């Protein structure tokens, strides 16, 4: 059902945008979805309060209250704030906007509604994008879009195991995430700058295994890492709020998207006072996080500023001015607690480059035992680049498997979901996560701790994973490419022998060449009958 809703909404929304660029149009659609959601949740709380006021068994019961008193109580902001529901002024409520959808000035009315919402909810100040009055849509299209978004019902509740469960947040989150992905695909390269495909985020979160504490993303895009962390925690018996969210994003538009993405899910967050460059204006200089997850822009060359010379973050060497990859890695390590762990998406070149100081920084990080796991990824995972990518997992202080790095080659584990797009299935994500968990929890025979036994014990698998001592990595010049260490995939016992297979292929080729010669002769005869000479 939810898949049909998402696809229908997207198809209609995409049709309505006419010739408008997807990069511009996404803010129009996502902003309206945001307003619809907070208005629906406000109305749901309002309906709940009315029931409570009338229930003599409820603490909120208002005995013999007249309609005027009830209406006054319903307008008390504290009732809404106490359950983390945004207060929505009457003129900004969705039913009011929908009633005015066919008015010529509906764009201005929406902007005014957003201003009212910001005024009443300081946490949203500067986040809502007021651009509707100047939107370049054909006449009537904005009103049609309002009608479309009106079809999404975020306020319904249902009984589940005698508990009232509100589906609004989950439905809204899924629609919002789906639209982000669709816009990223429509925008191509530009869209990928703010959106990390869901399967990569799921894999990062599954391997980091966040449960409680502070989660930080230094280039948070639209906030997908945080959302997935909360989903993971809830799926494993935790609750919303078990982690504190800290993020930073340089792009002002994307910074707003992230704040909206988190706000609609009821996730408390700190994205800094403003959009800012993580290197030059670190919004969380004193933060030491339990978990860091990030997908920084690959290989950016214009990041350096003279003020960064001698920065305390460059513990393992000053990064080259022409590439920020090792600046990101060291920035992230700097922001980890002693018990912290980080997962980072980077271009494959980061695993082997020795240009400028990169090789020396990598050597220093490996020798300091900061690298825990390296994962090679399939191609075609990203909307915005075909550059091959990998995952780095770093630790501030390694507590298990000291002096070893786990290498995983997942290049063949992706599934094509379209002609140009690849992803990891949930089963593959679980498989990789189980491999890492088993490695972390099993004794290390390389360290003389005995061989692990049992169904869940870690074992090297040729062509897929291998645990490697730092001394061997040093022999390879501290290159961290998994394919260099995991070896070739084992041949299945029932595989056809090479000699037999080669003989069959040779026989088939001979048969096809003979058939080709027959067809060639037949064509010559037919053409000869028409007077052609050979």
Describe the secondary structure blueprint for this structure.
Elements: H1 2-16, H2 22-54, H3 67-74, H4 78-81, H5 94-99, H6 106-120, H7 141-149, E1 157-160, E2 163-166, H8 168-187, H9 198-208, E3 213-217, H10 224-235, E4 243-247, H11 252-263, E5 269-270, E6 289-294, H12 325-334, E7 336-347, H13 358-367, E8 371-376, E9 389-395, E10 404-409, E11 415-416, E12 422-423, H14 426-441, E13 465-469, H15 470-475, H16 483-486, H17 498-529
Parallel strand pairs: 3-4, 3-6, 4-5, 6-7, 8-10
Antiparallel strand pairs: 1-2, 7-9, 8-9, 10-13, 11-12
Helix pairs in contact: 1-7, 1-8, 2-8, 9-10, 9-14
Explained architecture:
- This protein is of the alpha/beta class and 534 residues long.
- The chain has three domains: 2-184, N6 adenine-specific DNA methyltransferase, N-terminal domain (Ferritin, Up-down Bundle), CATH 1.20.1260.30; 196-486, 3-Layer(aba) Sandwich (Rossmann fold); 500-534.
- It has helices at residues 2-16, 22-54, 67-74, 78-81, 94-99, 106-120, 141-149, 168-187, 198-208, 224-235, 252-263, 325-334, 358-367, 426-441, 470-475, 483-486, 498-529; strands spanning 157-160, 163-166, 213-217, 243-247, 269-270, 289-294, 336-347, 371-376, 389-395, 404-409, 415-416, 422-423, 465-469.
- The strands form three sheets. A nine-stranded mixed sheet has the order 5-4-3-6-7-9-8-10-13, with helices on both faces. Strands 1-2 form a two-stranded antiparallel ribbon. Strands 11-12 form a two-stranded antiparallel sheet.
- It is globular and about 95 Å long.
- The chain starts with a helix and ends in a 5-residue tail after the last helix.
- The relative contact order is 0.07.
